[in-house]
Amino acid sequence: MPIFETISVWLKEVLLPYGGFGLMLLAVCDSSFVSLPEVNDILLMTFSISNPGGMVTYATLTTLGSLIGCALLYGVGRKGGEAFLRRTPRMTDDKLVRMQNWYRRHGVLAVIIPSLLPPPTPFKIFVLSAGAFGISWPKFIAAVVVGRGIRYFSEGILAVIFPSLLPPPTPFKIFVLSAGAFGISWPKFIAAVVVGRGIRYFSEGILAVIYGPAAIEFVRQNFGMIGLGLAILIVASAVVYFFFARRRIRSSEA
Fold it and tell me: Does the pTM of the predicted model rise above 0.85?
């Protein structure tokens, strides 16, 4: 077993008993030097399903942990990130200058967008580049908090409100009973079930048509993360749209 995989397994076993603070420490590791793909996402949603009242705490601590881990990697980028990028294959001085200029104009988006996306999006290289090309600390921190905050809070909200998006063995029936017990209105309940089950079953049908029998195993292993990724992409698209809309309004007023 590779050394980093061994470390990942060990970290999960050691930190999980600490609940939200365990999630935070896992996020520090995952966002800095030890890759734990999908672990935070899955555990955050699992904890939120088990304890909906703690969702805000779980999402906040996971976001904070990711910010700390990203800050460590950003610091490395500030010290030696440019030298690292110069050693990258096919990286010329001209490309490096163009990247530097682009980051200085749009560096916040270069951090926000990949921070929203699930694995295998290579987020660490964007964090290193942000440090290497001199994105200011305030802008970098704001970008990570916005991106990771949207991602983790979206996951927590989906886990609490739309557990029907998730594949078995998610205990969906208990959430349906709880919705009735706590007085969720009929229109909201019907809309939630139609949206959650609709996304799930139409996605499964489309995958079956495109991929045939192979879709069954694919859905069994990956559907939860696919549904989550689609939801996060929708949220990210809305954020980017409103960001550029505000910029256009400000430009027209100037």
Answer: no
H helix runs in the chain, sequence order: 3-15, 19-31, 39-50, 55-86, 93-116, 123-132, 137-161, 172-181, 186-211, 214-253
Is the model's pLDDT at 227 over the cut of 60? Answer: no
Helix (H, G, I), strand (E, B) or coil at 18: helix
Better pLDDT: 164 or 143: 143
User: Residue 16: which H helix or E strand, with range?
Assistant: none
The residue whose two tokens read 């078995």 is 168
Structure tokens at 234: 């929708």
- pLDDT more than 90, % of the chain: 6
DSSP string, 128-171: HHHHHTT--HHHHHHHHHHHHHHHHHHHHHHHHH-GGGSPTTS-
| Residue at token pair 């990570």 | 144
Domain locations in the chain? 1-161, 162-254
